[in-house]
C-alpha cells in the first residue's frame, strides 16, 4: 500500500513512521522543507530508540520506505492521511485539493473536528473517515476509527482492518461526537486539572495523577506534551460545540509563545 501523509508535525511524522514500520511505502508531505527535515530527524531518532529496545531490526530499511514531498499531486492513487493543524478551513482546503487525485481511503487525524463536516470538502465522501492516532503514535496502541454520516460501512471496515494490520488496536467510533471516545474522557480530566492550578502546582497535580490515578504521565505534563497550542485550539472548538473543556491559562501561554514541549517552555521547562 502507498500512503501519503499530509503534514509532517509530531502526529504526521509519527503516523508515517508507523505505516513504514509495517512495510508500507510512505510519502510525507509538508509545505516547508525545514519541517520535512525535522520530521525525518525525529523519525530516525525514534527508530534508533526502538532498535535499542529490540522492536525495530533495521533502521535504514524502514527509512528507505519514507519519502518526502512538497508537491500534493504526488498523492495520486495513494491512501491519504491528513494530519495538519486543527483548523477546519485549513483541513477542508487540503482535503478538497487532494481528493480528486485518488480513489483510496482518505482519513483525517483530527482530534476535535466533526468528520461529517470535513467530509463536505471531499470528493466521493463515502471513503472519508477519521483515523485518530494518539501521541506518540509509534508507542500508543489505540487508534480511533470514526465513521461520519457519509462514510460507507465497507470503507469503515476496511480502515479498521488497516489499523489492525499496523499492529494497533482499532476502536470503532460510530457516533461523530466531539472528542469521539478517548478525548471525551481526557478533556474532562484536563478541565479538572486546569481548575486546580489556582491552588496547586503542576507537580502536585501530576503527582496525584501518576501516584493515585495510575496514569503514565501527569495531566498537566500531558497538556505540554501534546502541545498547548493544539489544546487551546481544541478548547475553542469544544466551546463552539458545547463540550465542557476549558483551560483558561492556555490562551495567555500560547500568546506568549509557550507551546509546551515543542517550544521548550510550557507548564514545565523542557529546554
Ligand atoms: N519513539 C521511540 N521511543 C520513544 C518515543 C518515540 N516516539 N517517545 C519516547 N520514547 C522512549 C523514550 O526515549 C524512553 O527511552 P529510554 O528508556 O531509552 O530513555 C522510553 O520510550 C520511555 O519513555 P519515557 O522514559 O519518557 O517515559 P514513559 O515510560 O512514561 O513512556 C510515554 C513515554 C509512552 C509517552 C508515556 O509517558 C505515556 O504513555 N504517556 C501518555 C501519553 C498519552 O496519553 N497520549 C495521548 C495523548 S492525547 C492525544 O494524543 C490526542 C489528542 O487528541 C490531543
From TrEMBL:
Keyword match NAD: yes
GO MF terms, alphabetically ordered: NAD+ binding; oxidoreductase activity, acting on the CH-OH group of donors, NAD or NADP as acceptor
Transmembrane annotation, as ranges: none
Domain 3-hydroxyacyl-CoA dehydrogenase C-terminal: 179-270
3-hydroxyacyl-CoA dehydrogenase NAD binding domain residues: 2-176
Site feature location: Important for catalytic activity: 132
GO BP terms in the entry: fatty acid metabolic process
Positions with a binding annotation for NAD(+): 7-12, 30, 86, 91, 111, 135, 262
Annotated keywords: NAD, Oxidoreductase
Protein name per UniProt: 3-hydroxyacyl-CoA dehydrogenase family protein
Organism expressing this protein natively: Metallosphaera prunae
Lineage: Archaea, Thermoproteota, Thermoprotei, Sulfolobales, Sulfolobaceae
Part of the whole protein covered: 1 to 271 of 334
Amino acid at each position: 500500500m502507498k500512503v501519503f501523509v499530509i503534514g509532517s508535525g509530531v502526529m504526521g511524522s509519527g503516523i508515517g513512521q508507523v505505516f513504514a514500520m509495517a512495510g508500507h511505502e510512505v510519502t510525507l508531505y509538508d509545505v516547508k522543507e525545514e519541517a520535512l527535515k525535522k520530521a525525518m530527524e525525529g523519525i530516525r531518532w525514534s527508530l534508533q530508540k526502538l532498535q535499542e529496545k529490540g522492536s525495530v531490526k533495521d533502521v535504514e530499511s524502514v527509512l528507505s520506505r519514507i519519502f518526502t514531498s512538497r508537491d500534493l499531486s504526488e498523492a495520486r492513487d495513494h491512501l491519504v492521511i491528513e494530519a495538519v493543524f486543527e483548523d477546519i478551513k485549513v483541513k477542508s482546503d487540503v482535503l478538497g485539493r487532494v481528493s480528486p487525485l485518488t480513489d483510496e481511503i482518505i482519513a483525517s487525524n483530527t482530534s476535535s473536528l466533526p468528520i461529517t463536516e470535513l467530509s463536505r470538502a471531499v470528493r466521493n465522501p463515502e471513503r472519508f473517515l477519521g483515523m485518530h492516532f494518539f501521541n506518540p503514535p509509534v508507542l500508543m496502541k489505540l487508534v480511533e476509527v470514526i465513521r461520519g454520516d457519509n462514510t460507507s460501512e465497507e470503507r469503515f471496515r476496511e480502515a479498521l482492518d488497516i489499523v489492525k494490520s499496523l499492529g494497533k488496536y482499532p476502536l470503532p467510533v460510530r457516533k461523530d461526537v466531539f472528542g469521539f471516545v478517548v478525548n471525551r474522557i481526557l478533556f474532562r480530566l484536563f478541565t479538572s486539572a486546569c481548575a486546580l492550578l489556582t491552588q496547586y502546582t503542576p507537580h502536585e497535580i501530576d503527582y496525584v495523577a501518576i501516584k493515585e490515578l495510575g496514569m503514565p504521565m501527569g495531566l498537566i505534563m500531558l497538556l505540554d506534551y501534546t502541545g498547548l497550542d493544539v489544546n487551546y485550539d481544541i478548547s475553542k472548538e469544544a466551546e463552539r460545540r458545547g463540550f465542557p473543556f476549558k483551560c483558561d491559562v492556555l490562551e495567555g501561554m500560547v500568546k506568549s509563545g509557550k507551546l509546551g514541549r515543542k517550544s521548550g517552555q510550557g507548564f514545565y521547562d523542557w529546554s
